[in-house]
Known about the structure:
mainly alpha, 38 helices
Amino acid sequence: MIRNIKKIIDKLHAKDPSVRRKAAEDLADGDERGIYPLIKALSDENTGVQDAAMRALIAYGGEIVAYMALPLLRENSYLRNTGLIILRQLGAVSLPMLYPLLKDKDDDVRKFSIDLLSEIQAEVDPSLIVPSLEDSNANVRAAAAKALGDLGYRDAATQLVKCLSDEEWVCFYALQSLGELKADEAIPAIASLLESQSLVVRFSAIETMGRLGSSSALSALMSYLPKSDEDEKLAVVKSIIQIGATPDMKELTEHIINLFREGDWDDKGIALHGFSALKCTHAIPLLVETAGQLDPFSPDSEEKTELLKRAILSIDGEDELLGMLDSPDLKYRGKSFVIDLLGELKSKKAAGRLSVYLKDVSRDLRRVSAEALGEIGEHASVEELMEASQSDADAHVRRSAIEALGTIGSRDAYAVLKGLLEVERYPDLLEKVVESLMKIDSDAFLGGISGYSSTIRQIIARSASDIRTLFSLCEDADSKVKISAISGLGRIGSEEAASKIISFLRHEDPEIRKASVVSLGDARWCSPELFQALSDEDPWVRFFAVKSVAAACESDMVIEKIKEMLNDRYVPVIMAAIDIIREIGGREAFESLSPHEEHENPDVREKVREVLGTL
């Protein structure tokens, strides 16, 4: 509450507009004595003062402000709009004063009151708006029709149906609301509007039947389609699709194609549903062509490609796609899209043709063909894939061929893949080779583990899910292999795995202790040994122990242990502890941090104060 409110009110008459604006802002913290002066200040010649006065009145809130704002609805356009904003922001408190305005003598005031009720929504009684559907003013009737839909008042459906014979604008809003209310019983009346002389009314009726989504509207729309003009046809087709087109509606095909060609991507999405419903195979070339024309660097290209792909897959157009594969008219991107689709369809008919593409001049076509052959899984493709895995000049193609061989699982590829362990130089490809060998014959591959290079043993440790293999690698002489195996045990997370991890927490190598701490966090394994790691002599072990305790243990236990780390001598450990305490939050977090507000390190001081300000 402000003192000397009278002096502040007097400043609303100062010559300097900045003084008047400041006074209006200050009155937001005042009492009821400031309401009327603020109402008067809404007419100030300075827009900044006007805005400050409006905001102050909204901040006051309450019935008195609502009562004082009502007369503004009868003023000039600026004051009227300001009054509407204030009453809308005040919300439910305005309602008792708005309901009487539904019967006001002024047409505009009646409409404004309906608009406000529609926007306030909370606690509004929509039944009081229903009589306004018979108001003498068409704008009021239209506002009422719209408001009843906005308020979701299903009981008004019968009265809204009567409005369908009203003036065009009223009918439009009645249709809109019937669609929002899902009033299926209105379909016969809505269908009769297809004979209206008004194009706006016909369009609205067509769209409303689509929004209602009831099959009872299908016959009316199908009957109207041949009689509709060109502008209406696409709207009719969209509504039929939204309701649910069926495979027997073949006469829709060309219309859906036109919708896809002429519409934006929202319309194209509807058309794609139509193609799927009709199993429209001869739309596939159009969809493939569209996919091929998409800009791969556009942010929504991937989403659009996926929409097209899902539609084609739902049509079951394997033969159509096979026919397009060797077409000289099909551009590179379209061909790549077709190959990808044939892979998803697991088209055995395509396997022989795709094997040929493994020698194509285009790197991307070779790559996508290898991926598709892997999905198809035909053993007849193994020889060509083995050749590609060994000799293709592009690493991406070799990677796809290696992965495909693992997916197919042919024992014939085992020796070739194992040979790649000696010659392949890219780490990510070596990982794929290991994965594929384990898919083909895990026992045979792991049986020779001691003979593999350190790099390969590390890869096995990173990808293996067999605990015995990881146990074996934990004893490896190479520390990097040992660390990878310890990390792998964290993925498994069993009691047996955790016990093995804990056994390394006393290892002389700090890197191995660090890996063990991280692995316990990954396993979500809270243990006394993990708490002991908070006192490790190595600062980075302590740093990761803080994070693992937070990941593995209950919040009440975490804060008790972590707050001690705020006294650590290594700043990164302290910073990690502050971050964890901030995430937990609450009174205990505040009490843990506040003693360190004057920490000797300036960075720690700054961070502690920053976090305390948010708790």
